[in-house]
Amino acid sequence: MTSRRQFIKHGAASVGGIVMVGCGAHGPLRAPDAGAPPGAPLMLNGAAVKTIDVHAHCMIPAALALMGMDVFSLYPKTMKGGQENVVVIADRLAAMDAQGVDMEVLSINPFWYEQPRALSASIVRLQNDKLAELCAARPDRFAAFASLSLQHPDLAVQELEHAVRKLGLRGAAIGGSVAGVPFADPRFHPVWAKAEALGATLFIHPTGTPEMARHFAGNGWMANVIGYPLETTVALQHFIFEGVLDQYPRLKICSAHGGGYLPTSAARMDHGCFVNPGACAHGPALKKKPGDYVNQLYFDSLVFTPEALTNLVRQVGVSQVMLGSDHPFPWADHPVKHVLDTPALSDADKAAILGDNARRVLGL
């Protein structure tokens, strides 16, 4: 990756440690594999589609420095995509253009949930300010989810209101729990209440389950491949079975990686309470079948195959699925093509997933 020093030498500007350089073109380019020649909009059913990736990452180096860290503290130098989290704007826009992505909704995976109040507040304030600066500099290409100090819920409420009302961010990115405490814990309810009142979207991205490390040891990167989807599934099931979604029925939750195993386990959730009602008797009486709540949640499209995307849409409805890539990590180098190449989807379905749903849900 070109160094920050090299860009500064050529007169680049900097926004909070995210290197800003001119991108050349006045609008997004369109990669050939996205269905149109470079410079032309993607057309479906005779209408232009603005593609919006709701699952894209970045890091703010100055925020990491507050904890004595750099990006390599979180992602090894050998890990493709790790260092690219430090956004060089020209490189990021070029990569987005190659994917056929017009806009990314940026998020930062929580690494501060065990930090004391003052330090966490400083990290979050810096990140949210710099994300807002980036989005203001290129509103045609970037939006963002705020960071929150969820371990201090009263502070998180203030941070969320400021981020949405003052900074124009679209909601907040959260992990799968807060230092192992599930999101259904009443201490977090004020945060969910504030998100519902603001119409803000919560983007759940897992961060790891260290208590499972012994089981995930060995070959195959199981901590991520199995652990991340499992962490997301558990988080969502707590939201459902502990009555959080009944208490906050307009709460908008979108989950990374297709929601983990939740969409495929909806019927099993229903049968579990039927087969063993005692296991469901200690919690609140739900207003709907457990599986019905799945259809009010949102999911990204990062499920890798046309068959998997077809099954996700069949389970939750096309209105609940949005484009996701995990960029800059190379999980989906061609996320737009993945949707376009899913034959079971109509052009209207594809347009919804590629951008229409995100524009509606996030207010873009």
Automatic annotation (TrEMBL):
Q: What is this protein called?
A: Amidohydrolase family protein
Record's GO cellular component terms: cytoplasm
Alphabetized GO MF terms: carboxy-lyase activity; hydrolase activity
Q: Which residues form a coiled coil?
A: none
What keywords are annotated for this sequence in UniProt?
A: Hydrolase, Lyase
Keyword Lyase attached: yes
Please give a single GO biological process term from the UniProt record: secondary metabolic process
Q: Does the keyword Transferase apply?
A: no
